[in-house]
Amino acid sequence: MVTQLPPRPQTPQLLRVLKLIFRPLDYLEDYQKQYGDIFAVGKSKTPLVYVNHPQGIQEIFNADKTLFKSGAGVGFVGFLLGGNSLVALEGERHQRERKLLTPPFHGERLRNYSQLICDITRQVTEPLEKGKPFLVRPIMQEITLKVILEAVFGVTSGERYTKLQNLLGSMLEFFNSPRNAAIIFFSSLQQDWGNWSPWGRFLRLKEKVDQLIYEEIRERRKQGNFSGSDILTLLMLATDEEGNPMTDEELHDELITLLIAGHETTASSLTWALYWIHYLPEVEEKLRFQLSNLGENASLEDIAKLPYLNAVCCETLRIYPVIVSAFFRVLQSPFDLMGYHFEPGTAFIPSIYLVHHREDIYPNPKQFKPERFLERQFSPYEYLPFGGGIRRCIGMELARLEMKLVIASILSQFQLQLLNNRPLKPVRRGLTVAPPNNFKMMLR
Questions:
Q1: pLDDT digit string (tens) for 180-216?
Q2: Total number of domains constituting the chain
Q3: Can you tell me the distance from the alpha carbon of 252 to that of 280, in angstroms, rounded to the nearest whole number?
Q4: pTM for the complete prediction?
């Protein structure tokens, strides 16, 4: 029997949103324990519906493309990335842009980034000193930002490159605390009262980043040199069915999306990986043993194929996925799911974190156990750190490759240790959940 709506918490909206901001994982787990595989929040007939059962997620991901619209083009995400961003586009235009952007992140082009990743990792970590504690996340963020800047613009130096690197870092650091992240969720806090107001400072940082990207686009157009293999060159050569090239605004929105999504999440995942590898000595021992058995003539491709290294990366992305929920899908036609009936306007949120912590799929889900991924293959509805369906992250393979090669490079150069063995708890970082900023390690 199909009923109208799934169960929903009666918590007042303000308290619910505050819990989502300051204790995001407790927010998800508490409601899942109370309401099960599917629950709604909000009092309207078109609520937000969290789905954490593989069957329900499969039906959402495999539904007709016209059934849902992306919810990423509204609110803060839409403002940050722009209406021409891949995550906000729909229909044929979304398919066209996705097809255009996919090649740089696959095949030979992807393999060409391997040496770059290792070189940047060595360059960034070289100043580390024995016995001197260091903050882990800034190191990982510098690595991943340099890699994505090279992939997007094809440059590794210059005044504009340096400014963009610094400004992007500052813009994203702005939301590194739950307090500042609250601005994302409460539009009433998005008031520009000059540089002394948080939102005002953010707007000025964003304006400077936008200006640098537009300068790069205009300079490339003026030069007329489109012989490079970077993503900006690829996009500037693209035309629509009528032969029209992308506008400066369209180019900007795609580039800012790739720059932000292409390094922020991977930096968090790498920070988690280094924590788990050194928090559990047996994991580090197995990894080092596998790396040492490769031989002197091993290629970077051989390293990327190591089964246990891959398992460590997969388990890192499982236990604390940086994006805890896939972008929500807004329903366009009446739809039945898991025994409930939904009206157009309902927004579905596939919960990555809750699926990854299902006891029936991952026994002892709070335990970090890379062997899970050596013992069985999980379906794309049971394991989905990069989302799924037509909205799955196009940079997935680059992120995986980057994680493997950065970890292997660091382990081959250094012996690291944690400053203490206290468990590391995730915290909100803007729209993501990440390791705390004060997490430090030290060279033995």
A1: 788 888 888 888 887 788 888 889 999 999 999 999 9
A2: 1
A3: 43
A4: 0.93
